[in-house]
Write the structure tokens for this entry.
Amino acid sequence: MIEEISSINGTNKKAAIQSTNIEPINVVLIGVYQYYNASIRILRPVIDKIKGINAYSIFYKKYIGNVYNAPTAKEEELFVNIIKKLNPKVIGLSLLSPYVEICKRLTYLIKQNTDALVLWGGVGPTLEPELHIQHEINGGADMICVGEGELAITQLIEAIRDGKDYRNIQNFWINDGEKITKNPMGPMIPDLDTLPFAEWGHKNMFFIEHDRVIKDDPELENGIFYIQTSRGCPYSCNFCIESTYHNIYDGLGKRVRRRSVENILKELKTQLARPGNRKKRVDFVDEVFGSNAPWIDEFAPRYKKEIGLPFYAKYHPKTLKPAIIKRMVEAGIAYINFGLQTGSDYIRNEVYERPGTKAEALTLCWDLKKHKVDVVYDLILDNDFETKDTLKECIEFITKLPKPRCFNISSLKHFPGYGLTEKAIKAGHITREEVGSWHDQMLSTTTEWKFRPRWRKRKKTRTNQLQRLNNIIFLMCGNHVEDSVVKYAVFGKSLGSKIAFHYINLKACIIGNLIGPIRPYHNKGFFNRGSWNWKWSYFLHKRRLTAYPLMAIKLCLSGEFKELMFRVNKIIKRSFNAKRVKPGKAKSLDEWNIME
Ligand code: B12
Ligand code: SF4
């Protein structure tokens, strides 16, 4: 079946259309709140290669960490204008669990303004198909795709083009208003090399944000090149989607699939050879980067020689064996990211069902220090299963980590259907209704995603004392307090310790509120030292008018004049070329239950 996709990819569409005089059919794919969006960037070229089809993609608003930027009336108007103009026969939306209300609204606008068949696909429908197929939930979408979409959508579009019945295509569920047809899932794509590369800067792309539409792909201006070299993860931590995917995809093929080194390098070379290329680093967004010996033995020397850019990769601590670290260093890794997630073996093994011990993690961290590899650790706070003892264990554990320490701290989020969510419901920490609330999901994956210290407990942290310990961990992870002070405050029994404890808790709350959540950056260069980068990036984000001149001074001092010119040019272009539109009022999150 994969050969079918490859053969489709190989056809010369334009020539084929001319020879058969087919009137091209337009298809639109929509990704919400993410300009990178791997699924849309891969699915559009898959569809576009089908004979007689013109595929377009709309990136409806971009994702900014910890900010919720609701669509404005103007943005909706721009969206409607595009779809009316393209008049597509099929429109596909890709969504994560939190974006149901946004997609429901878009579906409503599509149905009001076109006759297109509307499909929903992505993580949300794959996790909870029974819910997403309902018209009350999806605002009238006709079909959902459960699981991987490349083959299913190819077959669907071909059937529609040829006027054939499309109701029995694997992976699709159909709601025709009277009955729901549920087709079984087909096998996963065994060989990822057969897929097209994620595409950047195609003329059929539209980006909607800040009350305007942009046609030039903003991702091309980004200095980092994102690339996915695999799908799936061998582990099954119960706070992660992989724990559910192992069940959903059971029996449908090998879950972890990795592209060949040749195929990955080819994609990188193609992108880096683009005129005006600005990529200075590569970010491998795989859940767990390659650790298979023959693969890494080929990847490391070839990447160094043929690409040579510093890169980031994510691992599970268990997969980071000394031989792999050596290879990664050879290849030129800029930093490795992996999850410590907790400092307690009980929380890791029993609550998160994640293998490994803190002793192993410490050995690994010191090994990486020996190899001079920068690391960003992931840590989960606001976990409703933590106790005073487990949080104290975590504090002690952090003090043992090599310095400088760089953390990425999240606030635990219970996604529908995940193993940990079921555990939390059973333990009475959260109700099924709270998990199912799209409104809360949107909040918890935007403004509430990163941990922020709080003066008073939240429902998740249960007691004020647990909240304070969480706050103090935040302060340590942001490098705002000496370990000796924390040890004295947390483990001491004296009155002085108690005072110190409340003092550092207060400091965490003030810093957290003034500077915002921790932004993880490695520690090189003047502005990137310790907590400096965190403050600097938040400042940049919040106070642009002051930040721009400061950034210009920084670039002048470091002699990056070309970069300075590029940025000045970009700001001028953005300000003067933007169509002057009256800004539409953004809806508040509470207004998102809307169908009129
Ligand atoms: C890489 C990644 C990122 C990247 C890029 C995200 C992106 N949208 O491309 C970055 C770092 C930016 C990121 C950010 C976030 N992420 Co993320 N991310 C991932 C990761 C590891 C892989 C996603 C991916 O690219 N997969 C490869 C693509 C090709 O697969 P796919 O998206 O599933 O699409 C296939 C099918 O679903 C289907 N399909 C998809 N769309 C459509 C549409 C149609 C019409 C059809 C027919 C089919 C179809 O076909 C596709 C190809 O086969 C996943 C984990 C995972 N295994 O999914 C988490 C994951 C998606 N992320 C998650 C979260 C929570 C986030 C954030 C909200 C975190 C945050 N607050 O910062 C943001 C949200 C950003 C956003 N708005 O998209 C959660 C989502 C949970 C949920 N239940 O919804 C996941 C599942 C991880 C987890 N915690 O379990 N993420
Ligand atoms: S190792 Fe990472 S990607 Fe894999 S299951 Fe655990 S959290 Fe998810």
Summary: The chain is about 45% helix and 15% strand. The chain has a mean pLDDT of 88. The pocket of cobalamin (ligand 1) is lined by residues 33-34, 36-39, 42, 63, 65, 92, 94, 96-97, 119, 121-124, 126-127, 145, 148-150, 153, 228, 240-241, 285, 287, 415, 445, 449 (CB under 6 Å).
